[in-house]
Specification:
There is one protein chain. By secondary structure, the chain is an all-alpha fold. It has 2 domains: 76 residues; 30 residues, no CATH class. Helix 2 packs antiparallel against helix 3. The longest helix is centred in the middle third of the chain and has 30 residues. It is flat. 8% of the residues are buried.
Length: 113
């Protein structure tokens, strides 16, 4: 997805609605952060509380991370693959090379020459 319009089509977002979508995602991030915090708090309780806390914490962390990535893509109006965005590309070597990772690799190879 080299063109930002492709991202909007793929995510079914109208150009005029980007602000509202970002606001909605930030609200979701807040709600799921509270859920994750509640799950983490339950990790200090009884065995049953811990069994409830683990999935809540993981779900909250997962949703907040992925929503944050989408918000960054929409606010910057530039698509970045999740694996290239996550931890600043530390895991970009896993799986098929993305166009962004390829560009960075070629730039590095050119700078060595």
């Amino acid at each position: 997805m080299s063109d930002f319009r492709q991202v909007l089509i793929h995510w079914s977002i109208n150009e005029n609605d980007i602000g509202r979508v970002v606001k909605g995602m930030k609200t979701q991030m807040f709600i799921f952060a509270l859920l994750g915090i509640w799950g983490a708090y339950n990790l200090t309780g009884t065995t049953m509380a811990v069994l409830h806390g683990i999935p809540l914490t993981l779900l909250g962390l997962l949703i907040v991370t992925t929503r944050f990535w989408r918000v960054q893509v929409l606010e910057n109006r530039q698509f970045v693959y999740f694996k290239d965005w996550f931890l600043w590309g530390l895991f970009s070597w896993i799986g098929r090379e993305t166009p962004f990772a390829r560009e960075l690799r070629l730039k590095k190879e050119d700078s060595y020459e």
